[in-house]
Amino acid sequence: MKKYTCTPCGYTYDPAVGDPDNGVAAGTAFEDLPEDWVCPECGAAKEYFEEA
């Protein structure tokens, strides 16, 4: 699965890890994240992420 990086802060979403602090299980593809999911580091919306 592809990783995506937050352009404002540089956080990288890794589907192998997910975002367990925000209820996203490991193995969740970026495309499958809820539309209201935001960067756990800076709060940026999904639209600010680019494929790493």
How does this structure look, described?
This protein starts with a strand and ends with a strand. By secondary structure, the protein is mainly β. It has a three-stranded antiparallel β-sheet, with no helix packed on it. The protein contains no helices and three strands. It is globular, with a radius of gyration of 10 Å. Strand 1 (4-6) and strand 2 form a beta hairpin.
Note the topology:
Blueprint: E1 4-6, E2 12-13, E3 49-51
Antiparallel strand pairs: 1-2, 1-3
Number of strands: 3
What is the helix fraction of residues, given as a range?
under 10%
Radius of gyration: 10 Å
Strand ordering within the main sheet: 2-1-3
Distance between the termini: 11 Å
Helices and strands, in N-to-C order?
A: EEE
Globular, elongated, flat, extended or rod-shaped: what is the shape?
A: globular
Number of helices: 0
What's the assembly state of these chains?
single chain
Instruction: Extract low-pLDDT stretches.
Output: none
Would you tell me the overall average pLDDT?
A: 98
Q: Structural class of the secondary structure composition?
A: mainly beta
Main β-sheet: number of strands, strand sense, barrel status? Answer: 3 strands, antiparallel
Strand content: 15-25%
What's this entry about, in short?
By secondary structure, the protein is mainly β. It is built from no helices and 3 strands.
